[in-house]
Amino acid sequence: MKKLLVFGCSYSDKKYVELTTKDPILKQHMNDNNGNLVEPFLFWPELLAKKLNMELVNFAQCGFGNDGIHSMFMDEIVNQKNIGLVVIMWSEFMRIGFEVEKRTGVTRSYDWFKVNINATDRNTDLRENKIEVTNVLNKYGCLSPSSMLKRSLRLFFSAQNTCENMKIPYMQVMGMPASKKVLEVEMCKSLIKSQYLDKINQDKFIGWPMFPQLDGYSFGSKLYDLDPDREKYFINSENVHPSKLGQEKITEWLYNESLDRLLPKKEDWI
Q: Among candidates 177, 174, 135, which has minimal Cα distance to 254?
């Protein structure tokens, strides 16, 4: 059986619902619009793997920015065998991450220090650390919308070239919108000027060039167009994560609108 490899953030990680509903603080954001606590449900990777009759290997992690997604992709793509399809669902641009080494005696492990410029961490000590890191990066101009956009574009192009050079069927897509509305105009201007605008393979990057202002889309923005009041396809009106119905809709889009033209003939990958 061929493997479906998935890389992404909480849009692609079903543990998001389980972890947040068990957290005494975060679970207040996990009631549906009827006031009921959301029960765990399958996300698009599980649903898509079943439709494709593939074995799912899901490397998505809640909170990952595009640095973490790309690093996980590069580390794993060289080790995996029998790959049927790679799907990279990128996260918003205003996240940045640093890989950190943890030592326990002679044992080493690696984790990610994740900073979301648009969010507030609930852990006070961790929040203070992230604010300190953010302030330093801002001081040197590292977190401007245009620089964060360029950072992600390089990762998109790198992932594209890696898959094409290795002759691995792949697809890229934006999950949540690339940025907050207030930053989109600046990012669109930067993207238009970027050398990567016409270098990204539009047949393999669904919704390119990502921003509605440029006739592109993320799956988050596409869901919002269908459900502007966030009553059906989102967990609730304040939560940007897809609901059970939203995950099913994403699966439908990936399968019906995209995968038929991205995969080899069915008899070759079953």
A: 174
